[in-house]
Amino acid sequence: MVPLLNQKGQTLEQFLKAYKEHEKDKYEKPSVTVDTLIFTVKDKEIDNYRKLPKKELMIMMIKRKDHPFIGQWAIPGGFVNIDEDIYESAKRELREETNIDNIYMEQLYTWGDVGRDPRMRIISVSYMALINSDNLSVKAGDDAEEAEWFSVNLELIEDNKKLVENRFAEVAQLFELKLINNKDETLSAKIKVEHKVVNSVAETTTRIVESNGIAFDHGKIIFYSLQRLRNKIEYTDIAFQLMPEYFTLTELQKVYEVILGEKLYPAQFRRQIEPMVIKTDKMHAEGKGHRPAVLYKFNPLWRLE
Amino acid sequence: MVPLLNQKGQTLEQFLKAYKEHEKDKYEKPSVTVDTLIFTVKDKEIDNYRKLPKKELMIMMIKRKDHPFIGQWAIPGGFVNIDEDIYESAKRELREETNIDNIYMEQLYTWGDVGRDPRMRIISVSYMALINSDNLSVKAGDDAEEAEWFSVNLELIEDNKKLVENRFAEVAQLFELKLINNKDETLSAKIKVEHKVVNSVAETTTRIVESNGIAFDHGKIIFYSLQRLRNKIEYTDIAFQLMPEYFTLTELQKVYEVILGEKLYPAQFRRQIEPMVIKTDKMHAEGKGHRPAVLYKFNPLWRLE
DNA sequence: TCAATAGTGTCTGTCAGACACTATCGA
DNA sequence: TCGATAGTGTCTGACAGACACTATTGA
Q: Which candidate among A16, A48, A174, B166 keeps its CA 20 to 30 Å from the CA of B60?
């Protein structure tokens, strides 16, 4: 077979050799990092002996020891090695922070605005990892970094809908994100979401209007991940990534509730979740002063009918 | 206010100055490109005078003039400028290929496996643009590049479900993607999707097992974008980005059908789509030999009730 | 006994799937 | 008249929202 030649008469091999010698570093390149949002759900202890613990959505944050944003908290992340897939890079990051491996992880979004890091042009690929509360006892990695879990609370604090020319709609929503660790340190960010229809093209802009203690544009990234979590929990089985092997249906329901931010009806929740779970013959040992609950397992076959 | 100092006693300004002088290019960086998948829906003319034209989903591809993959077809794309947001970069790419501006575009996914480009390490952020058939007459950009529209057809050709240990499921699906231009050039790719549950963690791998005439991993990227299109058309209004300002409900239904790959019932489709459209007093002029259809417009307010 | 959780039964209205039917045009 | 598209009416079963009810435990 005759090798294909380009306009300079080069074979592929010749082209690649010349390319690597002359073309490779012709332009200035941005740096690429991977940020991993690590979520789990944790019990919050309650005084009353008969009451069940409340569930809280938690995210892992790292305290910055150097400029920029010194002393503020950031999502764990780091530079992509030149010989490492970006997915592997995110897994490595997760391992370094938590010593946990073999965990559910998905790519979220890539953030590439010019001014998002004052040091230089950095494009950041964000991943979302969900770990179950079984593994929560695992210590944070042996880096000298301060890594801590923060509870995640998102509140809609303003919601404006406008009519323009009785034809185009503008929606402006203001959200407040609050992160609280077990020392009651509180970080917060206000995020404004504007939805406009211009020339019958819908445009949504999301921007941080205030940030306290959260480094870079990480408030916005966390906000985005919460939207994704809420969406995906409705039509996938990702919630089970947050559960231990055995769990009660009430625990599972509470995980759904904390992510969706609303109460669900037990009867209906059980009917809907039924195909995704397997009833075991084990009973929940913890609950006192009320009827004990049956433990369930995830049914990985649920999509196959 | 006292300026914050890091461990070396530097202020933020001192740190940034030192960083830019010494740290910036410490590590080898990957290159970053943006690829834009440009979709539209086109009429396919029919001989019978009373019949309506068929709708086809089309994607714009560029013929490669140089190594690697010389002579094959690729998604339009290019390097991100160092002083340009990645979203702007995708818009620029779209403008260069189609001369169209102000168009719906969303980020799809970021592809960052090490070996995906034989020239060097390239991380590619893909965007999806939808343009309406009104603009279709616009010529491809004035680049010397050959740019052409290809019809997009995706077929599920194998579907295996396995039980392992009567406990874990494995699903393997084989898809064939076919791209055909108006000279009847046919490009194709076979994509294998494997879904496994290992240690109760669900893992999905997607890989190209065969590629004819489609450069790089672009068959996989197109496949991914089709999944996203199908998903989003069900719960968002993106379909209207593919429509001209005035359209009949049958046209709209055909667009849904070609993207979803299935026939829909007219009565139900009309009931469901009703809140998203506004009936006008215009009638469709084209159709001959049958009842004329009312023209509708998109209702950008539909989400506000 | 009582407070709390576990778990079930059932009514109601909505809506998707399915299909049949009417309306209107041009050759 | 007929072949094609445009558009509507309605039956059926499934299922979400809502609420009430029963079951079981430990202090």
A: A16
pLDDT of residue B16: 86
First-to-last CA distance in chain A? 50
User: Which structure tokens are listed for B126?
Assistant: 């893909």
Task: Tell if the pTM clears 0.90, that is, is over it.
Answer: yes
Which residues from A are below 8 Å from B163, CB to CB? Answer: 301
Q: Which nucleotides of D are covered by protein (CB under 7 A)?
A: 3-10, 16-20, 23-27
What are the tokens at B181?
Answer: 């231009």
Nearest CB among B70, B83, B102 relative to A114 is that of B83
A171 and B304 Cβ atoms separated by less than 8 Å? yes
Q: Is the CB of B139 inside 8 Å of chain A's CB atoms? A: no
Interchain contact, A6 vs B197, CB within 8 Å:
no
Separation of alpha carbons A141 and A78, rounded Å: 14
Distance CA A221, CA A232 (A): 16
Quick: pLDDT tens for B24-33: 777 889 999 9
Residue A111: pLDDT band with limits 50, 70, 90: very high
Q: What residues have CB less than 8 Å from A116, skipping those under 6 apart?
A: A122, A124, A216, A217
Contacts of B11 in chain A (CB under 8 A): 67
Closest CA to B72 of B191, B227, B223, B219: B219
CA distance A44 to A56: 7
Residue A141: CB partners within 8 Å, gap ≥ 6? A95, A96, A97, A98, A99, A147
The pLDDT value recorded for residue A41 is: 95
Mind telling me how many Å the CA of A205 is from chain B's nearest CA?
12
**Token duo for residue B167:** 């406990």
Q: Which pLDDT band, with edges at 50, 70 and 90, does B211 fall under?
A: very high
pLDDT over threshold 90, residue A21? no
Q: How many Å apart are CA B104 and CA B233, to the nearest integer?
A: 14
Q: What share of chain B is helix, strand, coil (3-state, %, to 5)?
A: 25, 40, 35
B16-52: string of b/e by CB count within 10 Å (b at 16+)?
Answer: beebeeeeeeeeebbbbbbbbbbbbbbeeeeeeeeeb
How would you classify the pairing of strands B186-198 and B168-180? antiparallel
CA-nearest of A81, A95, A72 to A216 is A72
Q: What is the DSSP string of B39-72?
A: EEEEEE--SSTTSPPEEEEEEEEEE--SSSSTTS
Tokens of B219: 């068959």
Give percent of chain A with pLDDT exceeding 70.
Answer: 93
Instruction: Tell me whether residues B29 and A298 touch, CB distance under 8 A.
Output: no
Residue type, A242: L
Query: Which nucleotide is closest, CA of B279 to its C1'?
Result: D7
Q: Which of B303, B73, B282, B169 is nearest to A298 (CA)?
A: B169
Rounded CA gap, B41 and A37, in Å?
Answer: 38
Q: Is the peptide bond before B118 cis (omega within 30 degrees of 0)?
A: no
